[in-house]
From TrEMBL:
InterPro entries in the cross-refs: AAA+_ATPase, ABC_transporter-like_ATP-bd, ABC_transporter-like_CS, ABC_transpr_MalK/UgpC-like, Mo/tungstate-bd_C_term_dom, NA-bd_OB-fold, P-loop_NTPase, Transp-assoc_OB_typ2
High-level lineage: Bacteria, Bacillati, Bacillota, Bacilli, Bacillales
Parts forming coiled coils: none
Keywords (A to Z) from UniProt: ATP-binding, Cell membrane, Membrane, Nucleotide-binding, Translocase, Transport
Superkingdom as given in the UniProt entry: Bacteria
Protein name listed in UniProt: Carbohydrate ABC transporter ATP-binding protein (CUT1 family)
Source species: Planifilum fimeticola
GO cellular component: ATP-binding cassette (ABC) transporter complex, substrate-binding subunit-containing
ABC transporter domain residues: 4-238
Statement: the UniProt record of this protein carries the keyword Translocase: yes
Transmembrane helix keyword on record: no
GO MF entry, a single one: ATP binding
Length: 374
């Protein structure tokens, strides 16, 4: 195990006489034994970052340290890393046993030692009954277990996982998620996983590094990322369904400050905790998670009156979607046993303690908002 540190790491590709900056001055510090996720949309630079840690991509500037040792100029095999790709990359002619043993044989280990290590790793990953099979006879989940076994049999200081679950179906992804977490808890190896799936990152990681356009947006625990997003991008990227985000302007109605939703003219009262933060006449980006919106009775004063556009019954929860105007929808998630039809009247109240405000120009969270409770 080892600490992993990236300081000012950048990557610039030169294509047809122009420069493309894939990663921009990236800073990250992973603690010894920590499970960290690099999360972001396709093309945000997360896989490039992982490949630079592994030594498969040369960094343009900055510094990478593993266990306190600078590894910028070291080849992959000398960095003490284990790497599992999304495409498995198993050797088809070799048995599972020989695929896992390949790296140890290349190091000149004895067959007795190899057998002992392969059996140990196979037991960890529950693949002992697959050792004599060829890769063609394995399911996707089994291939990924073998792929990970090859990465960890070297006892790496840092384990790097590049979209390891992306080829699996929904149920198998969920099972492998649990297995990855169990495995990490047993080997306690510093682990970095690249994923575009925010549910995967939330379930697996101790801390999440959210990336966009090559830049680190926020690095924190799943709770911090979900409840205290530093900007509108993080707020909208994390959560399923995503956070409701729409434009509002602060105006006064009968001497009471209200948020007027732009585009539809509907309004609702500014919560007491935000009255010292907002200014009359100013525009903001208003955010609230679908789980923090309540369906209330018509007589509930100050509720937002609107109409149902789509109602989804998902069994354990219901999702209600409301169109505010031609460009803006908001969603509500509730476990209350209610039924709606498109066009039904509905009255909504936002949980005042869990409202987020963002600067429409910069996307940054407005300063002065109190901490949002769990």
């Amino acid at each position: 195990m080892a600490e992993l540190t990236l300081k000012g790491v950048s990557k610039i590709y030169r294509k047809r006489n122009r420069e493309v900056q894939a990663v921009k001055a990236f800073n990250l510090s992973c603690r010894d034994g920590e499970f960290v996720a690099l999360l972001g949309p396709s093309g945000c630079g997360k896989s490039t970052t992982l490949r630079m840690i592994a030594g498969l991509e040369e960094i343009t500037s900055g510094e990478i340290r593993i266990g306190g040792k600078k590894v910028n100029d070291l080849p992959p095999k000398k960095r003490g890393i284990g790497l599992a790709f999304e495409n498995y990359a198993l050797y088809p002619p070799l048995s599972v046993y020989d695929n896992i043993a390949f790296n140890l044989r290349a190091q000149g280990k004895s067959e007795e030692e190899i057998r002992r290590e392969v059996d140990r790793i196979a037991a960890l990953l529950h693949i002992g009954d697959l050792l004599e099979k060829k890769p063609a006879a394995l399911s996707g989940g089994e291939k990924q277990r073998v792929n990970i076994a090859r990465a960890i049999i070297r006892r790496p200081a840092v384990l790097l996982l590049d979209e390891p679950l992306s080829h699996l179906d929904g149920r198998m992804r969920q099972r492998m998620r649990t297995e990855l977490k169990r495995l990490h808890n047993e080997i306690r190896c510093t682990t970095v996983i690249v994923t575009h799936d925010q549910s995967e990152a939330m379930a697996l990681a101790d801390r999440i590094a959210v990336m966009n356009e090559g830049e680190l947006q926020q690095f924190g625990t799943p709770f911090e990322i979900y409840r205290h997003p530093v900007n509108e991008f993080v707020a909208g990227f994390i959560g399923d369904p995503p956070m409701n985000l729409f434009a509002v302007q602060v105006v006064k109605e009968e001497e009471t400050p209200v948020f007027k939703i732009e585009g539809c003219g509907k309004s609702f009262a500014v919560p007491d905790r935000l009255r010292s933060v907002v200014k009359e006449g100013m525009r903001y980006r208003f955010g609230v998670r679908p789980t923090d919106v309540r369906v209330v009775a018509p007589e509930d004063g100050g509720a937002l009156a609107t109409r149902v556009t789509v109602f989804e019954n998902l069994g354990e929860e219901h999702r209600i979607h409301i169109r505010l105007d031609k460009n803006q929808m908001i969603s509500v998630v509730t476990d209350t046993d209610v039924r709606f039809q498109p066009g039904d009247s509905i009255f909504l109240r936002f949980d005042e303690e869990k409202i987020h405000l963002f600067d429409p120009a910069t996307g940054r969270r407005i300063q002065g908002q109190e901490a949002i409770p769990a």
